Amino acid sequence: MKLHKVCYGILFFFYLASFVSANQGPGAAIFKDIKTHIEEAYYTDNKTELEAQLKRASALVNDKEFEWYAYYYMAFCHNHLSMLTLESDPEQARKHVDAAFENVDKAKEINEAAELYVLCISIMGKKITLGSSLMRMTRGLETLRYMDKAKELDPDMPGVVFEHALTEYHTPVKFGGGVDKAKALLKKNLKILETYEHQDPLYIDWHLREDNLAWLAYFEAETGNICEATEYYNEAAALRPDHAFLNSVVEKKLNEKKNELLRSKQEGEEDHG
Question: Is 194 domain-assigned?
Fold first, then answer.
């Protein structure tokens, strides 16, 4: 019995030592640095920096202790690079999509995590955009399967709720989706984000409060709620002034709707005049 206790004690020591090493050792420092650079490149749409971090991560796949993170980071970089090349170079975007799925699948072989299925949902969004209309239904079903798996693993993970919101937005109302459902989910996510913390410090920080606010601003602008859209926009900008999506797509949509409202008001005054 005493021998068993000693053996268990030794095993626990090595487990604890490996856990501390995975979060505090020199390897962890390298991956934390890559993570920080990926996040900065992601929010600023810095293609060159994403390519540089992709190269750094790919050089570390043989580090068995951090192999999972290498594949995860590579998949993340390929996913965002696909978004940045969707319009300018669709063929290159397809290659990035394929590489993203290849790397995320390798990561899943090591450890299935909700974060990976959230990433799959995002990658599939690009694949749907690049594909034919005939394949969109099939890929839409694949997206739902990823969503179900992510919810099973971590139902309140902000990334799960965020991608669910975007999926609802891109689903026609007659099929149960729509912008109102998307807005409700993002508002729910803002409450979740008040207390939620990643279980792993090496997870990439995306789907943050500013992302939810940016999309809420976009949705409110699209539905003509200019005051609400402006409030969300300003709050997001205060949190992340260099938010590329906010400063390009959302700002453009908001200005378009403001101009439409102004023209409508001027036309109404002319009619009454």
Answer: no
Six token digits for residue 64: 């068995």
pLDDT at 270: 62
Placement of tokens 């899943």 in the chain: 108
Q: Is residue 181 part of a domain?
A: no
CB of 157 within 8 A of CB of 181?
A: no
Query: How far out from the chain centre does Cα 224 lie?
Result: 26
Q: CB within 8 A of 46, min separation 6: which ones?
A: 40
Region 66-87: mean pLDDT is: 97
Rg (CA), the chain: 22
Which of the four pLDDT bands, split at 50, 70 and 90, describes residue 12? Answer: very low
What is the number of structural domains in the chain?
1
How much of the chain, in percent, has pLDDT values that exceed 70? 86
CA angle at 205 for the pair 184 and 154, rounded to the nearest 5°: 60
- 250: containing domain: 213-273
